[in-house]
Amino acid sequence: MNLETLDWDDELLDTIGVPRPMLPEIRPSSAVYGEVKEGAFAGVSVAGDLGDQQAATFGQTCFSVGEAKNTYGTGNFLLLNTGNEAVQSKNGLITTVGYKIGDDAAVYCLEGSIAITGALVQWLRDNLKMIRSSGEVEDLAKTVEDNGGTYIVPAFSGLFAPYWKGNARGVFAGLTRFVTNGHIARAALESTAFQSREVADAMNADSGVDLESLKVDGGMVVNETLMQFQADILGVPVIRPKVAETTSLGAAYAAGLATGFWAEVEDLRENWVEDKRWEPQMDASTRDEYYKYWKKAVTRTFDWFEAEDA
Questions:
Q1: pLDDT, tens digit (0-9, with 9 covering 90-100), for 151-186
Q2: Which DSSP category does 158 fall into?
Q3: Cα separation of 89 and 111, whole Å?
Q4: Which helix (DSSP H) or strand (DSSP E) does residue 113 occupy?
Q5: Are 114 and 270 in contact (CB under 8 A)?
Q6: Over the stretch 95-122, which tens digit does the pLDDT of each residue have?
Q7: Cα–Cα distance for residue pair 80/112, rounded to 1 Å
Q8: DSSP string for residues in 42-111
Q9: How far are the Cα atoms of 39, 55, 250, 277 from residue 255, in angstroms, in the given order?
């Protein structure tokens, strides 16, 4: 699909050999596509069609330029609303259509994808046997006051945004004999926040708009130690909604708008409810010191293999 025309791109179709007639019509994210013909749901409209991360962005009601959400799962996906302009990234991000409501103009987003976040906690559980369940990682991390100088960059299969280095591999950096399993657990959680900070910095550079707050969702947002560190390392509030399953919620919002259950997007804002907010507590100099060593650790992952061997 051509991002500007919102229709199939003839040049790309020719290049990859896909005949246009075999492709379906591209429809808005919020529209009625048909109705159920038989059974218990006969007469019910089929409406609302959003991809995973776009749906989560819609469910977080990020309808204004500069609003962003971050989904914390096995990987992380941070999306920033850039309005009706498809901003082409110069800092390693993806330009995508966020959503299109009926006949309104399309709304675009910048997206930053991080490969390994929650999967690192799973790795501590399954490979290193440090914890018995993912939920135990927070308690283990809280046995220490800080990371003890330890940084984990989980480039298990390369680095995604904003680096896109397929020949990078993971590293533990800053290890000393002082380091315990608590420090490793804390460093694992912090790596999620550091990677999200790097994507947020790239978004600030591309959009020219500084992030003012970050809405969060996904399985890892129950980890309050991580959420506080995320607020600290970003220097902005981190906000968790009452309904954390924002992907399903976003699809429902889009369907509800199309069928008239809600009249406008402002009704959706009123329906969205904040559950908890974490304010930054770390001073700027400490934040900069942490981030400096993170960036240093990331460079150690680069070019572990020659490009042709990766």
A1: 999 999 999 999 999 999 999 999 999 999 999 999
A2: B
A3: 9
A4: strand 107-114
A5: no
A6: 999 999 999 999 999 999 999 999 999 9
A7: 9
A8: TT-EEE----HHHHHHHHTT--STT-EEEEESSSEEEEEEEETS-PPPSSS-EEEEEE-BTTSPPEEEEE
A9: 20, 11, 9, 28
